[in-house]
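Good morning C.,

I know you're traveling, so I'll keep this short. The sequence:
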Amino acid sequence: MTIPAIRLVISDIDGTILNSQHQLTLGLKQVVAQLQAAGLPFVLTSARSPKAMMAIATELGLTTPLAAYNGGYIVNPTDSGAFEPLFSQPLDFTEANKVIQLAIHNFPNVAVNIYAATDWFVPARNSWVAQEEVITGMTAEEVVLSEFLAQQPTIHKILFIGEEEEITSLEGAISKLVLMESAKYRSKDNYLEFTNKLVSKELALQKLVAHYQIVPENVMAIGDHDNDVSMIAAAGWGVAMGNATEACKEKADWVTADNDHDGAAVAIQKILEDLPAND
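The tokens, ready to paste straight into the viewer:
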């Protein structure tokens, strides 16, 4: 196995650097620290919001950009705790409103989560919202939906959470709408994401490559789900987790161990072992 000269590592979060208990392992923390000591940036990309990513970035000691909402909103954390936008690709508001109304009126048990820049809004709290709050460490802001939407906010992502069967039905209903500027995809079996059609983790990779003034061949990308496929395929060395979907594994250059056996750390360790040849 020949690994190209890596100058940047981009990694998904859930199912990748977090184990099934939603925790970072000591092994992962150690290899990320070694990576940074060697001068190689480690950048997180996720369907999560910047605020939900920041706690993980802080635990890893990262000061690198965060590619949130699957690349739809890339920010640079500042010393003051704020986020400096580097790139933004929001949804078309009319199309966002269409899918929100569809879900609210036809799928009342599905949680509708609206993300605008760094903030998370919900029209109603339920067990799905509470579960997401535990996972992300954030608190959703409950709003009166009609008043909130009347302001035509800049929306970067809508996340629908529910039972898998309901999410499948919702996905089918959305497919029947005429939507020219938007795209939907699963980030988990019961999570349906809705973003601008231009948004992808490949786009995030492209923006980060430009930011660091390197080329895609110098990037290692690690992921586990279908929303990671595009960046895994675009990277010089694409790594799929052992727990990844088949689509991820098919596009990867290498399949590592699963997220409960430090698969991401194993992949990063190979980069560290290759550093003398890369210098």
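Safe travels,
E.
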